[in-house]
Design goal:
The chain is of the alpha/beta class. About 40% of the residues lie in helices and about 15% in strands. Bound molecules: pyridoxal-5'-phosphate (PLP).
Length: about 325
C-alpha cells in the first residue's frame, strides 16, 4: 500500500481541506470578503482548517457547528477554535442552514457579506483541489526512481465525508485517463457521515458541477459524466455512526501509528480499517493494482488551545464530557496526537 501524505499539505494546518481551501479562500480574496461562514460537526477538521487559514489571511471565520457524539479529538478541535477566536454558532442538528441564515442577516446588518463555504468545503470550487491532486499523483507515479514507477494508481481509498475529496479525485483520474488514453484509476469513498450527507445523487450532481466549472474555465477539459468515473461509495463501514470510535478504527489508528502516521478515528482510521477489511475479505487482490491510501488528516502541530470559557456554554459542557470519557489527550496544551 502507498500512502499519499496529504497530512503535509500545510505546516500551519494540513490535511485534505487545504487543497479545497486553496480555491475557496482564493475566491474569498478575489471577492474581497472580510468574513467566511462555514459548517461542520463540533469536531470538524474542515471548520478548524477554514478558521486557521482564514485567520492567516486576515479574514474573520464564523462556523455553524452541529452536535456529534463525544470523541477523543473533538475537544481539542474546539479548544483550538477558542484559541483562534473563531466565532462559533450552534445548530440543533446536521442541517445548519437556518442558523446560517440568521448569522448572515446579522453580518449583513454589520456591513459584512460572508462567503458561505459549504460543509466540508465541498462544492465544485473546492473539489477542483482534488482534481489537481489526481493529476499530481498520476505524475508522481510516472517520475523515475520510485518503487512503482510506471504503474497507474490502481485504487485510492479516501474517507467519504461530504465527498468533495473523493469526487474531485475520481473526476481527476477520469480526466487523466481520457487524456492519456488509459484505464481509469478507481476511487473508493468509505462513508463516515450519514446517508443524508453522502449519497449517490449528491455525488452525481457534484460531478456534473465540477466538470462544468472546469470546462467553463478551460474548454479543453474532458467532457466527463458520472458514468465515466470509477467511483464507489461504500456504506457498510458507517455504523455505529459519525465520529464513534470502534475496535476496528482504533486498531487501524494504532497500526498506522506504528508506521509513523498520525491518523484519527472519525475519518482516516475508518478509511484504513476499510482497506484492512477488504484485504481480509479478498476484495482487494494483487490484481487490484497499487492501493493508494490518502492520509487526509492534519499532522502539523495543533493551533494553541484557548480557554474553555471562550466557548459557548453547551460546548464547555461537551468538552468536559469528552475529557471525562477520553482524557484530555493533550487538548489543553495544543499537542497533536
Ligand atoms: C481528516 C479528514 N479526512 C476526510 C474528510 C472527508 O473529506 P470530504 O468531506 O471531502 O469527503 C474530512 C472532512 O472533514 C476530514 O477531516
Amino acid at each position: 500500500m502507498l500512502v499519499k501524505r496529504d497530512d503535509l499539505t500545510s505546516t500551519r494546518y494540513g490535511g485534505n481541506k487545504v487543497r479545497k481551501l486553496e480555491f475557496l479562500l482564493g475566491q474569498a480574496r478575489a471577492e474581497e470578503r472580510d468574513v467566511v461562514l462555514t459548517f461542520g460537526a463540533y469536531g470538524s477538521n474542515h471548520a478548524l482548517a477554514t478558521a486557521v487559514h482564514a485567520r492567516a489571511l486576515g479574514i474573520e471565520p464564523h462556523v455553524v457547528l452541529s452536535p456529534q457524539a463525544p470523541g477523543p479529538f473533538a475537544a481539542r478541535t474546539l479548544r483550538a477554535h477558542a484559541g483562534l477566536g473563531t466565532v462559533i454558532h450552534l445548530a440543533e442538528g446536521w442541517d445548519g442552514t437556518r442558523e446560517a441564515a440568521r448569522v448572515r442577516r446579522e453580518l449583513r446588518e454589520r456591513g459584512s457579506d460572508p462567503l458561505v463555504i459549504p460543509m466540508g468545503g465541498t462544492n465544485a470550487t473546492g473539489a477542483i483541489g482534488y482534481v489537481n491532486a489526481a493529476f499530481e499523483v498520476s505524475a508522481q507515479m510516472r517520475e523515475p526512481g520510485r518503487d512503482l514507477t510506471g504503474t497507474a494508481p490502481g485504487v485510492s481509498y479516501v474517507p467519504g465525508g461530504t465527498l468533495g475529496t473523493a469526487i474531485g479525485l475520481a473526476v481527476g483520474f477520469a480526466a487523466v485517463a481520457r487524456i492519456d488514453q488509459q484505464s481509469v484509476a478507481r476511487v473508493v469513498a468509505v462513508r463516515v457521515t450519514p446517508g443524508e450527507v453522502a449519497n449517490e445523487p449528491f455525488a452525481r450532481t457534484l460531478t456534473a458541477e465540477t466538470v462544468a466549472l472546469l470546462r467553463s474555465l478551460d474548454a479543453s477539459f474532458p467532457d466527463l459524466g458520472y458514468d465515466d468515473l470509477a467511483f464507489e461509495l461504500r456504506d457498510e463501514f458507517f455504523e455505529p455512526g459519525y465520529g464513534v470510535p470502534t475496535h476496528q478504527t482504533e486498531a487501524a489508528v494504532e497500526l498506522a501509528a506504528a508506521r509513523g502516521l498520525k491518523l484519527e478515528t472519525t475519518y482516516t482510521g475508518k478509511a484504513l480499517s476499510a482497506v484492512l477489511a477488504d484485504v481480509d475479505s479478498g476484495r482487494l487482490t494483487p490484481e487490484s493494482g497499487p492501493v493508494l491510501f490518502w492520509d487526509t488528516y492534519n499532522s502539523a502541530p495543533y493551533p494553541p488551545a484557548g480557554p474553555d470559557e471562550a466557548l459557548p456554554a453547551p460546548l464547555r459542557e461537551y468538552v468536559a464530557e469528552c475529557d471525562r470519557l477520553f482524557g484530555n489527550s493533550g487538548s489543553r496544551m495544543g499537542v497533536a496526537p
